[in-house]
Amino acid sequence: MLVIRRKIFAMAYDEKLAINLRAILSAKQGIQEMKMFGGLCFLLKGHMLCGVEKERFMFRVGKEREAKALKRPGASIMDFTGRRMGGLIWVDSKKCSKSALKEWGALAIEFVGSLPPKKKQ
User: Fold this and answer.
1) How far apart are CA 38 and CA 100, in angstroms?
2) Distances from the Cα of 102 to the Cα of 1, 38, 61, 93, angstroms
3) Distance between CA atoms of residues 15 and 28, nearest Å
């Protein structure tokens, strides 16, 4: 937390959630972290893989798996600034056990791992 002029400002993402997500991603080579969209995102081969926000996780599962993923506990459509983001899912951290978090991570890695590496620009 930052203290500025006697006001307390919380970070835009929950560090505990970030630690939990890092733990499940630690075995996968090529994962990078990047602060974006007011949270913390993890990338694989230059593609957004997953991330954390205040009280929820974000996973990129792909449009083909989105409907099935939305049936899982705590899952909801990701709409960023009122615009639906196809293939991306919010997961409520309070409804996501450690084993479920591993499953979400594996689902995202399976999808993003199938994409060709992004070209550096």
Assistant:
1) 24
2) 28, 23, 13, 13
3) 20
Three-state DSSP class for 69?
helix
4: pLDDT strictly greater than 80: no
How many Å apart are CA 31 and CA 12, to the nearest integer?
21
111: Cβ contacts below 8 Å, ≥ 6 apart:
60, 61, 62, 65, 87
Q: DSSP of 1-53, one letter per residue?
A: -EEETTEEE--SS-HHHHHHHHHHHTTSTTEEEEEETTEEEEEETTEEEEEE-
Spatial CA neighbour of 18 closest among 45, 57, 48, 46: 57
pTM of the model: 0.86
Query: Which residues touch 118 (CB under 8 Å, ≥6 apart)?
Result: 45, 46, 47
pLDDT, tens only, 7-56: 434 447 889 999 999 999 998 999 999 988 778 999 999 999 999 988 99
> Taking a C-beta distance cutoff of 8 angstroms, is the pair 108, 77 a contact?
no
